[in-house]
Write a structure and sequence with these properties.
Radius of gyration: 18 Å
Helix content: 40-55%
Number of strands: 10
Structural class: alpha/beta
Shape: globular
CATH topology: Rossmann fold
Strand order of the largest sheet: 3-2-1-4-7-8-9-10
Number of helices: 12
């Protein structure tokens, strides 16, 4: 954790991610949680870059429509290119319905799985603690369920990209649950839970699971590039329930603007097979936490993906077959 601090401060104070300029003409792009914050700014940038269709997936459709109007107005693009679809990551049936709706599409070029929560109190949702349900299980359930539509372009020489928005905070968790016989059973146990580290743990699980998945399914077989991205510490609604004088001062001094942070999301979605299974930060591939890349890291990636796969199969039997 202490080795993480210098790179964090360097990134926050001395690095400004470049503005993406790659054309998105003809592309269909899905961003979850794009009704606000980083997702909204990433959506705005993709529309500025010429995306042919943008789909916002969010819980609050009124806020989603407001975002769509704002994006269309600020970019001078026609409102008709932006759709707003219901998506509630606390409800697995909502995730399934969202994925089913994409079957109507001829193509998906980029998916940014940006929606997430930072809950500080233990609350069970859909059989798991809420951070785990939303940030991990539903996120990977959606990844699997989107594969049939993403793969429609496999024969056209086009490799779509699916990006999961993670965080450099994945460096900071001790992840004690890894010492238990079953990781997800341990994560469900409120008595063993340190909620002060639960969000960080959920972000580590994203990085571990995606690494394990990517090893098991190389991009040549999967036909889709999958990666994770760190936007940096930005002004956003995530963690809006966290308040203290010191925290508020630190945010004012250190946080990137939402637009600057969103550049990382846009860049990650524009990347190709060279980033499969990788973690991006400041618009470049970076090393993941020592727990991921150090001794035992490969085994832990495989274990997390295997155990997560069991959870996904409980929700939707046969869902892992969509990756084959």
């Amino acid at each position: 954790m202490f080795g993480y601090a210098p790179s964090f401060f360097y990134s926050q104070f001395l690095v400004t991610p470049p503005v993406p300029t790659t054309s998105c003409a003809g592309k269909t792009i899905i961003i979850t949680g794009a009704n606000t914050g980083l997702g909204r700014e990433a959506a705005r940038r993709y529309v500025q870059l010429g995306a042919s269709k943008l789909i916002i997936g969010c819980r609050n459709l009124d806020k989603g429509r407001d975002a769509a109007e704002d994006i269309a107005s600020s970019t001078g693009r026609d409102r008709s290119i932006i759709d707003v679809w219901p998506l509630d990551l606390t409800d697995y049936e909502s995730v399934k319905k969202f994925a089913d709706q994409t079957r109507e599409l001829d193509r998906i070029d980029i998916v940014i799985e940006n929606a997430g929560i930072h809950a500080t109190k233990f609350h069970e949702v859909a059989g798991n603690e809420s951070n785990i349900t939303v940030n991990v299980i539903s996120t990977f359930l959606l990844l699997c369920l989107l594969m049939p539509t993403l793969r429609k372009q496999k024969g056209n020489g086009i490799t779509p990209t699916l990006t999961i928005v993670s965080s450099s905070l994945h460096f900071t968790t001790p992840f004690l649950e890894k010492n238990e016989a079953n990781i997800f059973e341990a994560l469900r146990d409120e008595k063993k839970t340190n909620m002060g580290m639960r969000y960080q743990t959920s972000k580590l699980l994203e990085v571990l699971a995606l690494g394990g998945l990517a090893k098991q399914h190389p991009v040549e077989q999967l036909g889709v590039t999958i990666n994770t991205v760190n936007p940096g510490w930005c002004h956003s609604e995530l963690g809006r329930d966290m308040h203290s004088a010191l925290f508020d001062v630190a945010k004012k001094i250190m946080c990137r603007t939402t637009e600057v942070g969103s550049r990382n999301l846009v860049d990650a979605g524009l990347r190709g097979p060279e980033t499969h299974g990788k973690y991006l930060s400041d618009c470049q591939v970076e090393k993941r936490a020592p727990m991921v890349e150090g001794p035992g890291g490969d085994e832990l990636q495989d274990r997390v993906w295997k155990e997560l796969g069991v959870e996904l199969e409980k929700i939707e039997p046969g869902v892992l077959n969509l990756l084959r």
